[in-house]
Amino acid sequence: MGSHRDLPAGMVNHIFTDTGSSSFTEFVRSHSPDLLPGRNETLATPVGDQIPHATTIVAAICAGGVVIAGDRRATSGNIISQRDMEKVFRTDDYSGMGIAGAASAGIEMARLYRVELEHYEKREGRTLSVEGKANRLATMIRGNLPMAMQGLAVVPLFAAYDPDVDGGRIFSYDVGGGPYEQRQHHAIGSGSIFARGALKKLYREGASPEDTVLTLIHALYDAADDDSATGGPDVIRKIWPVVAVITADGYHRLPDEEVGEFVRTVIDSRTNFPDGPIAPLR
Amino acid sequence: MPFGYVSPEQQMRDKADYARKGIARGRSVVVLQYEDGILFVAPNPSRALHKISEIYDKIGFAAVGRYNEFEALRLGGIRYADINGYTYARDDVTARGLANLYAQNLGQIFTESLKPFEVEIVVAEVGDSSDEDHIYRLTFDGSVFDEAGLVAMGGQAEAVAGRLKEHYRDGLSLAEALEAALFALTEPGGERFPASQLEVAVLDRNRPHRKFLRLSGPRLERLLSDGAPAAEAATQPAQPAQPESPLSAPETPGAPPTAPDGDIDTGANG
User: Fold this and answer.
1) Both ends of chain B: CA-CA distance in Å?
2) Which residues of B touch A (CB under 8 A)?
3) What's the pLDDT at B3?
4) How crowded is residue A158: how many other Cβ atoms within 10 Å of its Cβ?
5) How far apart are CA B37 and CA B206, in angstroms?
6) S-S: B164 plus which of A29, A130, B3, B184, CB 3.0-4.6 Å?
7) pLDDT tops 70 at residue A5
8) Are the Cβ atoms of B104 and A126 closer than 8 angstroms?
9) Which of B57, B66, B82 is the best substitution to test chain A (most A C-beta atoms within 10 A)?
10) A219 φ/ψ angles, rounded to the nearest 5 degrees
C-alpha cells in the first residue's frame, strides 16, 4: 500500500480507491488478494479423498419458478465426514446455488458469490440479469481450475427466478466454467446419474412447486439408494434434504417440518414400491 | 509577519465556512426512528442519483451536499462493509466501525486538502429492538455525533429539526413517522412534496436477511395517504382500521425489492 497521498482527494484509506469495476472480486484482488479462494500455490500432492466432498444436488423448473434441493452428506473417501451438511445456498433474493465437489472450497465460493451479487446491486442500484449472474459464477469456477486439477474441484448448480420470462432457469457448470443452461431439470454430483434417471421419469412440465419438491425428493432418494456418497433421509435423526423454492416471491427455503412431510410421503409410498413410482410405459 | 500569512485558526474557520455554505445550499434530509426500525426521507426529484442507500444487511446511509463527494464515501462504505463481512461474518459489520472509517477520512481531508468535502452524512444501523438502533451523523470535519431518535441535515437543518421534534415521539408507526418527516421538510405554508419528488427508504428490523427497503410508487402513495389522516386522528376518532401493515403488502410482481422502482437504465436497450 502506498501513502495516502496516492489516494483520491486526501482519503486515508485504500477502501476508497475505486477499481472502476462493480465486481467485488475485482476489488478484493486489488485490496487484499490473500482473501480470495484458489490463490494458494499448487499443492504438492492431490488431496482428492482426504477432504470432505459434497455430493448430490438436483433442481427442476416448476410452474412460476424453480426448485433446488440437495442431500446432507459429505464424505472423505469412504468416511462420512458430515451427516447434516448444507450445500444449497441463498445467493440473493431471487437465486440460489447448490455445490458438489470439495465442500470447503464450495462453501467459500458460495459466500464470495453472494457478496459479489449484492455488491453489484448496491453499487449500481439494480440487480444483475440472470445471464449476468450465471456468467459471473462461470468465471469464478474457471479461476478455481488449477485447484480442481489437484482434487479440489467445485461444481455448482445455479437456479434463479427470471422476471423477464416469469419463470425459473437452471444453469450447470463443469470444472472449466460454463454456464450451460438446462431445460426442465438437472442434477450434479456423485449421485447425479441415478437422480437424473429418476428425474427423467418423474418430471412433469408445469407441475406445481409442491409436486416438483416431491419429484426432487424421489430423485434424491434414488441417488442415495445407489450411490454410497449420497445420504438418504435420516429418519432417526430427522435430517431431511435442504429444499428451496425460488419464485416471484423470492428465495424460500422450506422449513424442516415441511420437508419432513414430503419425505414421509416418499417413504410411505416406497414401503410398498421400494423402487419408487412406476412411470407409465405408454 | 510575512505577507500573506494566514493563521491556522483562520484557515480552519474559512474551510468550515466554505463547507457549511455548500451543505446549506441543498435540500434537507431527515432520518428518524419508528417502531420497526429507521426511516430515511429525502426530497429528491432524481430517480437515479440517490441520497439514500443500502450499505449492508442492517446499515443504511443518507447524505447531503456534493453528489460526487458523498457518492465516493458511499461506495467506499459498501466496499468496507462487504470486505469485512466476507473476511469475518456478516454480523461483524457495524455502523460504528463504518462511522469511524468515515470520520478518519473526513477529518484527514478537512485538515490536509485545500478544499474540504461539502457533505454531511448519516450512518444508521437497525438492531433487534429499538434500544439497539444506532444513528450516527458525521460532518465535513470528521466529527461524529451519536444521535438519539432523529436527525435533520442539509438545507435549513435547524428549522427542519425543530419542526421534526414537534411531531416526533418514541414508537411512531411508519405512516406517522413519514407524516412527521414530511411536516418537518415542508416549510410552513409551503406545499408538500408529492410522492414522485421523494426518496424514501426504511431499515425494517422485521425483514429477513437484508433490512433495507426502498419505498416508492403505489406503496409510498398508500403510506402517504395513511399518514395524513393519522395526524388528525385526535379530531377523527372513527379511523378505519388498517387491514395490514403497509410493509407486508405484496411486492410488485417481478420487481426486485431492493432495487429502485420506476424507469432505471437496465442496459437492455443498448
Assistant:
1) 63
2) 48, 50, 53-55, 69, 72-73, 75-76, 78-80, 82-83, 85-87, 101, 104-105, 108-109, 112-113, 117, 209-210, 251, 253-260, 264-266, 268
3) 72
4) 29
5) 8
6) B184
7) no
8) no
9) B82
10) -65, -40
Would you state the cell numbers that stand for residue B248, as one nine-digit string? 407486508
Grouping H, G, I as helix, E, B as strand and the rest as coil, residue B97 is: helix
Integer Cα distance of A175 and B158 in angstroms: 60
A75 pLDDT exceeds 80? yes
Asked if this assembly's ipTM is beyond 0.90, the reply is no
Q: What is the pLDDT of residue A121?
A: 92
Q: How far is A122 from chain B (nearest CA, A)?
A: 6
Please check whether residue B21 lies inside any domain of the structure.
Answer: no
Task: Specify the pLDDT at position B243.
Answer: 42
Q: For residue B124, what are the β-bridge partners?
A: B60, B135
Mutate to test the interface with B, among A3, A5, A6, A11 (most CBs of B within 10 A): A11
Confidence class of residue A7 from pLDDT cuts 50, 70 and 90?
Answer: low
Question: Could you tell me the residue ranges of all domains in chain A?
Answer: 46-272
Do A117 and A123 form a contact (C-beta atoms < 8 A)? Answer: no
Reply yes or no on whether the pLDDT at A130 is more than 90. Answer: yes
Domain count within chain B: 1
From the list A4, A12, A123, the residue facing B78 with the nearest CB is A123
Q: In terms of DSSP bridges, do strands B37-43 and B52-56 run parallel, antiparallel, or are they unpaired?
A: unpaired
Using CB atoms, pick whichever of B82, B105, B251 lies closest to residue A119: B82
Q: Which residues of A are catalytic?
A: 55
Put simply, whether the predicted model's pTM sits higher than 0.90 gets the answer: no
Whole-number pLDDT of residue B237 = 41
pLDDT the model gives residue B181: 94
Task: Report if residue B58 sits inside a domain.
Answer: yes
Which residues 211-250 in chain A show a CB within 8 A of chain B?
Answer: 248-250
Encode pLDDT of B139-158 as tens digits.
999 999 999 889 999 988 99
Of A35, A163, A248, the CB nearest to B86: A35
Find the domain containing B151 and state its range.
27-226
Handedness of CA A237, A242, A243, A246 (dihedral sign): positive
**A46-272, CATH topology level:** Glutamine Phosphoribosylpyrophosphate, subunit 1, domain 1 (3.60.20)
* Residue B248, domain member (yes or no): no
CB contact under 8 A, B105 and A11: yes
pLDDT at A253: 94
| A12–B108 CB contact, under 8 Å | yes
Asked if A28's CB is within 8 angstroms of B86's CB, the reply is yes
A9 touches chain B (CB under 8 A): yes
CATH number reported for the structural domain that contains residue B113 in this entry: 3.60.20.10
For residue A12, the model assigns a pLDDT of 66
Q: How far apart are CA B108 and CA B181, in angstroms?
A: 33
Give the pLDDT score at B153.
94
Q: Is residue B268 part of a domain?
A: no
**Which set of grid coordinates corresponds to residue B32?**
428518524
Amino acid at B124: A
